[in-house]
């Protein structure tokens, strides 16, 4: 019925073997017999844990890496590779992507299984609840509902933290030669989500979800070059903005809102009693303001993006 797939890189070094084993054990509520692992780690630690888990629970496993094909190191290329292996080697109805830092909550499969038999549903996505409280505290101070914000982010940029994809939808994308662009290292989940949506499939958003470690949610040290590449990709594929004018207004308002965030985050750090939290939130706010200012300078040079990502994908 389901094939599990994980895209990994230096998992053990990044989150620890104990947490990763908890992630794997949480998947046992899902009726799957096979695992597709695309692993670009610098050592075999992640692969060894997957092999041990597969032996202990009688799972078939296919392990590969992007280097074994074309050497393109991006999540977009790795995820497309997993899709290709799924379509080529298995006949199961669903491909299940799970991030290596997400522990599935009890009842995940019970909720997801309600949609398995609905033929017009191509995507089943469950909310990725943060393990750390900073985002929830911050949003509450801004009078933004935490759950609603997580869902809205998914509607814009998709998500593959814990996502089931119907085989027929993936097969149709393959027949149309619609593939995840290799350059999409970060936004490959958005391209995949919107590709299936543009084919006419419905998507289901479930509340049980996963506990997401998400230790690198916002990197305050991202270079301007990386920010510009991210921004370029975002608008090139029409993932977010409708027009440049709309985006400029939104970014300006976001900068003003970010200036208000600093004292609110300070208060949240104090009441949360988290070591180093103040330094972290200030760095994150500065990073976000810097990105918005770069956007104001950069967008007019891009030209208007496609008004709908379906325009880009299907033509």
Task: Please summarize what this structure is.
The chain is built from 13 helices and eight strands. It has 315 residues and is α/β, with parallel strands linked by helices.
Domains counted in the coordinates: how many?
Answer: 2
Which class of the largest domain in CATH terms? Alpha Beta
CATH fold-level assignment of the largest domain: Spore Coat Polysaccharide Biosynthesis Protein SpsA, Chain A
Order of helix and strand elements from N to C terminus:
EHHEHEHEEHEHHEHHEHHHH
State the strand order across the main sheet.
Answer: 3-2-1-4-7-6-8-5
Proportion in helices: 40-55%
SS summary, helix count: 13
Oligomer: single chain
Instruction: Describe the sheet with the most strands.
Output: 8 strands, mixed
CATH architecture identity of the largest domain: Alpha-Beta Complex
Anisotropy-based shape: globular
Residue-averaged pLDDT: 81
Label the structural class.
Answer: alpha/beta
Radius of gyration, rounded? 20 Å
SS elements, strand count? 8
